[in-house]
Amino acid sequence: MDCSVIICTYNRADILRENLATLLQQGYAPGKLEFLVVDNCSGDETPAVARMFANRGPHPVRYVYEARQGLSYARNCGFREAQGEIVIFLDDDALPEKNTWVANLIKAFRDPQVGAAGGDIHLRWPDSGRPDWVHDFLLPNLGKTMFDFQQEAVLHYPHYPWGGNIAFRKACLQQLNGFSPQLGRNGEAQLSGEETEVCLRLEAEGKEIRYVPDAAVAHLVAPERLTREWFHRRAYGQGLSDAEIARLHAGMRQGVIQLMRNILKVAIYLAGKTTYVLTRNPRMATYCSYQLTFSRAYIMRMLNLR
Predict the structure, then answer these.
(1) What is this structure's pTM?
(2) What is the C-alpha to C-alpha distance for residues 247 and 242, in angstroms, rounded to an integer?
(3) Is the same domain home to 162 and 276?
């Protein structure tokens, strides 16, 4: 089998239904593609939704259960259960924008040097729209990629594809023993970066990470994420995650030390400025608050305080 599309999910049966209905429209040779739903301890109708789509289209939909809570555990379960040589991870709240999405991603792996590939992630806002206070710099926290390429390109740290729309050669993941459970979403913990850490190891092994321009997906922005409290939790989790990635890769140590100095300076500067902008520019105030929370979490993790 050429490819397995892996959808890791947790208590999102309604969204999963739309995800699978869209995926079944992918144009690919029957018998060469499968969809694998990894249920990460859901307590809703997720198993029933997966069964509903099991034999609905030309490509099988399989269901597996991962009892250990955490996205990295679910991803590892998925690629180990997958039958395809290429495994594509798609968020359960992401929808391919073209019915050639799978085919376009797989093309990148014709080059044996390619270990991973991914495309853009665009945001699809809820009916309530985008709040005025959400700064452009905060959009990546909702899943938006910031690539600025018009054609296929080789990517390097920190500009890797993101986990909501990324493909790997299965053999590479097996060789690296998959994703680190120290990273990735886990219940309410807003940790991330498990795919970034894998890409770092792939590059260290001499593999290329490719950007595929015609493999975009739309990410559905949940209304409950459009609160300042959610962004605060997201900032804290991102700070912990970035610091953990730095700790796992000792070769980055000197750069990390300098980065810590810069972050301290930025944190001090923003602390003095946040009060000033709070009543003048809500969008900038939210961004400053995010950066302060991120910096605090990063520094605490690097100093083993968290």
Answers:
(1) 0.90
(2) 9
(3) no
